[in-house]
User: What shape does this take?
Amino acid sequence: MYKDFFHFNEMPFSLTPNTDFFCALAPHNEALKVILTALSMSEGFIKVTGEVGTGKTLLCRKLINHLSDRFVACYLPNPYLSPDELRIAFAKELGIKTGKTKERVNLHNNIEEKLLSLKAEGRQAILIIDEAQALSWDSLEILRLFSNLETEKSKLLQIVLFGQPELNDNLDNQRVRQIRQRITFSYSLRKMTRAEIDYYIGHRLVTAGGDEGLIPRYLRPFVAFTSSGTPRLVNIVCHKLLLSVYGEGKKAATSKHLVSAILDTEDCRRRVLPQKRLFFLSLALVAALGTWQMTLGGL
Assistant: This one.
């Protein structure tokens, strides 16, 4: 691969949610502030939604790493659980033994006792669920029952839901209106702007230990256009772009490499094809201008 060729310490555009690459752009920074504010106020339910590929899981991991020792984070990345499986998974995150049948019968009481114990120590439990749009109606009901656990002064458990926009549709259903009414803080992650993508690409290249000039700035607006501002698509296109550059042994990407990467990425290709003549003409003109500017800079 191109890691050693470009002298990277890490792969810059991996799809793994590595918090070292967290880019403090407005949408993710604002979402993190909303969540932390809600947690500091001991609010029961907090919801963050965003389209596929907008960085919800990375934000989720960043939140967990950002929490102080006062919080006990219980992370459930897989919401495809029955109500009993959800209870067991939550109990395990709290460090409760769940092996025997008798222990499972008393699981709800054991969870409550553990939460009370944490509260007595001055600590707060947080249940963080990723891909929450996949929760069943029965599992949502279990979350409602969990949210009922409280003292006279505060909640024993705070719940943060990360999900795709379908989560909002699910919560609009009358069957879960009690949960919907308990969600006091919400945030919707938007996609990145063109300027944010420019910064994002440079940030990831530099964070990985490479040269920001590997992907020239004149190419980045075209990455922004074809990706529609979706971080995951930006990563995929840039990864394929660098693969193409590496394959030719070059030191920086050109419009040729970008076209190859875009056409090899399904969602990006679909965005380009309806207006491909205008797109490729614009890319050719900008590439020519970019090359001319770099030539002048080298004189």
User: Anything to note?
Assistant: The chain has two domains: 26-189, 192-289. The first strand starts at residue 45 and ends at 50. The mean pLDDT is 89.
